[in-house]
Amino acid sequence: MGERGPHIWMVARVYAPDEGGVQTYAREVGRAYAASGRRVTIFAKSSAGPRRVREGGIDLIDVGAASMLRVYWRLLRAMIGAWLSGARPDMIHACTWRAALPALLFPGAMVITVHGREVGRPRGLAFLLLSLTLRRARRIVAVSDATRALLIDRLPALDDRTITAWNGVVMPPERPPTPFARREGHAQVLSVCRLVARKNMAAAVRAVAGALRTGARLRHCIIGRGVDGVRVREAIRQCGVEGAVTMAGYVAAEQLEEAYRNADIFLHPQIALEDGAEVEGFGLSIADAMAQGIVCIVGRDGGPAEFVRDGVTGFVVDGRSQDAIRAALDLLARDPALCLRVGERARAWVAHNLSWDRHVRLCLGEEDGAPLPSGALARAA
């Protein structure tokens, strides 16, 4: 096991500096494993590769961006090289079921994380591959009850090996009240997401426009990029709110931190599409906003409604109703004290309930009484 205890291989098809929820998941879970004394090797691809980096107890083997099949081949080749060099794992943790594919050839206990849409959408041959891959796992980790239910509805036989483990957050320092919180100026509304249809940003823009028409004083900044960007820009143009709603696109980490510091309301009215197959599994950006003490307005579909309690730690609305989104915005934009109270409760709840350390303990079975085997036992299993 070397100098740091049990050795965990993590496999991720995407990784930082590229943005996205799975990239964040792979980075933070790797850090949590390393902080617990495990040796961690991450096999991944990103636009910054090919590269080999050792940092904070993690060995990153980044095979670089390429076509899908070439990435799989490079990941497999890197794993074979590590295996032959003697750096063999006590456990393999695949960050998605597709990332598990090149790891299927290696013996030992395997954990596979599922996030939502990637278990709801596959059909035909892809569904068969999903089923065969997940049956190889000792433990399947769903990041929300909504994700778990979606999986078990499709593959009931996996019920006994599938657990729910909410994602964690990295708690930021407490931020000072914004000018709006001191009853000055406009409420600053923030959305941070990949611009795809289920995020529902075009409807968010129309709801902001409706709130402005009824006298609410607010500004809305949308951070992120994606295929739905054209539709969001068109909504801004049609509503005539170019002066109040801005699209910032991709921003650096420092700018994102500043946007969170200055925000009063976080708007993420996500919806489920394709009969529930296309769904928000968790919502890391929402959890991050709550950790900052920002009151959140979220849609009722998918995982976010599990940790945003309506009227207590945030507001849950029907994302398909622009009137419902607008009413929540209007309420908060007129009541800075309410924003502060709910935001403070949200931050306290997140600090107590969303932990990457607890997430990896659940992955390992250290909290549910069914620990995964390690060492020689795992390799013989």
Structure characterization notes:
It is built from 14 helices and 14 strands. The protein has 381 residues and is of the alpha/beta class. An 8-stranded mixed β-sheet has the order 3-4-2-1-5-6-7-8, with helices on both faces. The chain has a 6-stranded parallel β-sheet with strand order 11-10-9-12-13-14, sandwiched between helices. α6 (201-213) crosses α11 (322-333).
Task: Write out key terms for the chains shown.
381 residues, 14 strands, six-stranded parallel sheet, alpha/beta, disordered C terminus, eight-stranded mixed sheet, 14 helices, single chain
How would you sum up this structure in a few lines?
This protein is α/β, with parallel strands linked by helices and 381 residues long.
What percentage of the residues does DSSP assign to strands (E)? 15-25%
Mean pLDDT: 93
Order of helices and strands: EHEEEHEEHHEHEEHEHEHEHEHEHHHH
Structural class designation: alpha/beta
Low-pLDDT sequence parts: 373-381
Could you tell me the number of beta strands? Answer: 14
Helix content: 25-40%
Counted by DSSP, the helix tally is 14
Radius of gyration: 21 Å
Report the major sheet: 8 strands, mixed
**End-to-end C-alpha gap:** 17 Å
Which geometry do the CA atoms define?
Answer: globular
Strand order of the largest sheet: 3-4-2-1-5-6-7-8
